[in-house]
Amino acid sequence: MKVSALALLCALSKTSAFSPTLPSVYVKLPPAAPSRPSIYSAPFHSTHLCSSAASVPSPSNESESSSASGEVSLTKQQKRLKQIREEGGIFAFNTKYGALNPFGIYYGLTSIALGLVWFVGLTASQLLYKVTGDKLDKKRRIPVFLSHVWGTLLMLFTACFPKIENGKIIKDFHKSRRTAMFVANHNSWMDIPFLGHTIGWKNYKFVAKKELEKVPILGKAIKVANNVLVDRSDRRSQLLTLKQGMKWLEDGVNLCTFPEGTRSRSNRLMPFKNGAFKMAHKAGAPVIPMSICRAADIMPSYWMFPFRPAYGICKVVVHEPIESKGKTEEELAQAVREAIISGLPDDQKPLS
User: Fold this and answer.
1) What share of the chain is helix, strand, coil (3-state, %, to 5)?
2) pTM of the predicted model, to two decimals?
3) Helix (H, G, I), strand (E, B), or coil: what is residue 216?
4) What is the pLDDT of residues 163-218, one digit of tens each?
5) Helix, strand or coil for residue 258?
6) What's the rounded Cα separation, in Å, for the pair 291 and 337?
7) Contact call for residues 230 and 210 (beta carbons, < 8 A)
8) Given its phi and psi angles, is residue 89 left (phi above 0), alpha (psi -120 to 50 degrees) or beta?
């Protein structure tokens, strides 16, 4: 009752009948309890009572707050699930490793089944290099061939071959017997098999981040084939990586990389890192830009595997080689970037 009386008084104090500061008020108490002090026996200020009423805790406040935050969290989950089902159908579901649907499960099982054969082949070639002391297949062509077979069969069984535009550019370049740095934009895991398929049945090495060594089977393929791994936390490792990449180019082995350094979560082209262009520039090798289009439309970053085939959706646009000679590293990088942007759809182009 005290809280109700105080709240009522606060409400009245806001009307024109009360001034902000009230006069002293005295109430005559019954003679039965003369010794008990009354809260009305002293002058009071309306704002004091209002603050007292406001300080009384409401039992429902905390529960309402926690309920509201729970609803926000639940709404985010519902939005993601709705998005996943709009993309992958009514049977799509989310896991802590990424979303799945029936096609994604089929793709994953096919990938693993072929991957087991791939793993056996990689292990055998690794044993061969150890027994012969690396005297056979010094350019590590065998593991690259095995990886290419795995990727080709996987795309064949899952209808995930992309359309290739201007593929004749690469065929003509291979006939010249020169080596090049192949670079492309990166916003999906599917970019890796797409890039390998576009380059063709040639020996090439990826310039990739060292963390990929931890990926099952793929990590083994990267190590056995002597791909170029970059440890971004170690300056000395970066210098060794530069030398290793230049050595491969000089020895007649192509390099390929994604100059953004990681997948774009927004699907738009991100700024480039200069490592790839430094290798090509110092080795005097040309750079062949490629625009990978719509790969994230079949496998965004939050899906574990593709949720639909790539056929008829994805394509790779090959651009003319850009010579590194006669250009600075910055000019080379800018020319490559402009070429890649020219082949991308509007929603993959950078905003600025």
Assistant:
1) 50, 10, 40
2) 0.76
3) coil
4) 999 999 999 999 999 999 999 999 999 999 999 999 999 999 998 888 888 888 88
5) coil
6) 10
7) yes
8) left
